[in-house]
Amino acid sequence: MARPIRKTTLFLRIALRLIFPLLFLISAFTAVQLTNQLSFLNKVYEIQSHISLQGMTEILNRNLADADLLQNPFLLKAKLTGAMETHGITELLILDPLTRETLFTDQDKDFSREDLVSAEQSLLAKKEGKPPLFLIDRETQKLNAFVPVTSPVRQRVYIAKMGFPLGNLKLALQKSMGALIAMFLLTLLSGLVIAGALSRSIVKPIQSLNKATQEMLRGQ
Fold first, then answer.
1. Which residue from 106, 124, 128, 190 has the highest number of Cβ atoms inside 10 Å of its Cβ?
2. Who contacts 176 (Cβ-Cβ below 8 Å, separation ≥6)?
3. Rounded distance, CA 147 to CA 133, Å?
4. Is the pLDDT at 172 greater than 80, yes or no?
5. pTM for the complete prediction?
6. Strand 91-96's sheet: what is its strand order?
């Protein structure tokens, strides 16, 4: 006599076969969610950086017009560092593109060769009446703006390089955690429901067939 099929064993077999498709579905949803969240964060940061850029440019123009500040680098650094924190700027360098003199740096950095090229492009953009030059640094996940600022005291045009943060994978994961957990639980619950329904749809007819067969044998 054949051994009866145990519903629990069948349910586990079906559930295990559903694991890989469900994991693929969760992975695909996670990738899409993180990509969308990262794109959204970058858009938000880009808008914020444009707003902060306007305020910081006004501060630079005002400070560079103050002869006392230009003669006191420690006071200038204190004022600009405070302004950076207020406007969410992660890096600030001010350079004289003609003499290569660094007027201000918050991280003991100098303009790189690429920065000098960008500085020249920003000067050209100003002459043509175009907006400041924005470049995305994928390596450091920053948005760099190159803005010409004028010092009437020294009668020079400086280039200010301002760095703004961009979204990163860690932040996107934190923002998406709720949706990912909900998706995982919903997918898991759906898999269990499907496995239960399939096991019942398979076991019931077999049980009915076994019962009919036993009745026929008893009738003989």
1. 106
2. 30, 33, 34, 37
3. 7
4. no
5. 0.64
6. 101-105, 91-96, 156-165, 142-151, 133-137
